[in-house]
Amino acid sequence: MNNIDLMNYWFESSDSDYETMKVLFENKKNTWCLFLGHLIIEKLLKGLYARNNPENPIAPKIHNLILLSQKANLIVPNEIREKIQVINTFNISARYDDYKKNFAEKCTNDYTAEQVKNIREVQKWLKEQ
């Protein structure tokens, strides 16, 4: 696959996960909804990494959204960067049992709705790049 094919692969996978995130949100599966929100942004960043690195389009096998945005050579406005920093925490918080309980308590319906809105904003911004 060339870099554009890889970008399209990551973007399509992200879009599929977005649909799943919406179902989880509607069904109040808040921790997994936000975990998937992280994955949506991660995949978009890996797609942009592929596009911006045609000589080596295979994205690094990392999950840190801040580091991925840097490796993708993106200039991220502060407002988007702040949202990414929060979304970045959803990967660990929803995945590991010792974090899950505290994260589940934090993921009220209102908090989750706010974060889904932020995920959508970051998603839109990344797709415009």
Number of domains: 1
Q: What structural class do helix, strand and pairing data support?
A: mainly alpha
Distance between the termini: 21 Å
Helix content: over 70%
| Assigned CATH architecture | Up-down Bundle
**Count of individual beta strands:** 0
In N-to-C order, the SSE pattern is HHHHHHH
Strand portion, in percent? Answer: under 5%
Total DSSP helices: 7
What is CATH's topology name?
A: Four Helix Bundle (Hemerythrin (Met), subunit A)
- Shape call: globular
What's the CATH class label? Answer: Mainly Alpha
Mean pLDDT: 94
Radius of gyration: 14 Å
Largest sheet composition: none
CATH superfamily: Nucleotidyltransferases  domain 2
Give start-end ranges of low-pLDDT stretches.
none
